Amino acid sequence: MILKGTKPSEVIEKLMSLPEEMRLRVADVTMDLSNSMEAIAKSAFPKAVIIRDCFHVIQRCGEGIEEIRLRLKREAIKEQKKEKAEFRKKLERLAKQRKAYRKTHKRPKGKKRGRKPMRLSARFVPSTRSNEETKVESLTRCRKQMLKSRDKWTNGQEERAKLLFGEYPKLKEAYGIINSLRGIFKGKSLTKDSAKTRLHEWYDKVTESTLREIKAVRDTIKTYEDEILNYFISRATNASAESLNSKLKAFRSQLRGVRDIPFFFYRVSLVFG
């Protein structure tokens, strides 16, 4: 079913039109960290177990890393602007020195000129690292990389991460903490109780950290802890639905917007049906 909007009252009204016998057969409902989705599930499917999807939990962790990355990027941009300003001052200083020198010294005719001086119009080129990227470029290009597990990185991404983690230990610490949480959800032999023990150990690791962004993620997970741990009962996830949703959004963006909605659904049924 596809509904316009996410107002709980409207969604509940549509779901309640289904026979009660069918709604009571629903065993579990996977959802994001939205409270409105919880209200819908409890009203329409009273016997269902609510599962806060691990996909959305890791996505929330990614938001924490993204905040750190953007903060570091802003600092890197400030540094680059400072370097550019110092470069400009250097050019102006050299231009003044040349002007003063010409007033007191005249070059003999026929004598070749020395090294070509740097002009005021010289272009500033920021310094790069061994992977031929500036700090700002590396922090920009690592956005999607920080959301992936390390085994999915390419060789170029490995090199970039090595340089970034060496320069920004806080980014390395944040990625390590989030990766350890991802490892809990990947544990195939974990039960709800053993996963809870692992999760509380992860809380302790976050408490030792000084990263406020990661602590905010921990507080969010604590709020929905029991519903998140329900994942280890049936291992249910709506990752496939999220994947289809992202494909639909990409398809919509290719069309530069949608005017004729029925025709759009017709095309969707042909492409994805």
Concise synopsis of the structure shown:
With 273 residues, the chain is an all-alpha fold. It has 13 helices and two strands. The chain has helices spanning 8-15, 20-24, 35-44, 54-104, 135-141, 155-167, 169-186, 192-208, 212-223, 225-229, 231-234, 239-254, 261-272, and strands spanning 28-31, 49-52.
Q: Kindly state the mean pLDDT as a whole number?
A: 88
Strand order of the largest sheet: 1-2
Strand content: under 5%
Look at the helices and sheets and give the structural class: mainly alpha
Uncertain segments:
none
- Summarize the main sheet: 2 strands, parallel
Distance between the ends: 14 Å
Give the number of DSSP strands: 2
What is the rounded Rg?
Answer: 28 Å
Shape: elongated
Series of secondary-structure elements, N-terminal to C-terminal: HHEHEHHHHHHHHHH
Number of helices: 13
General description of the model:
This protein is mainly α and 273 residues long. The chain contains 13 helices and two strands, in the order ααβαβαααααααααα. The longest helix has 51 residues, at 54-104. It is elongated and about 105 Å long.
Q: In terms of topology, how is this protein built?
A:
Elements: H1 8-15, H2 20-24, E1 28-31, H3 35-44, E2 49-52, H4 54-104, H5 135-141, H6 155-167, H7 169-186, H8 192-208, H9 212-223, H10 225-229, H11 231-234, H12 239-254, H13 261-272
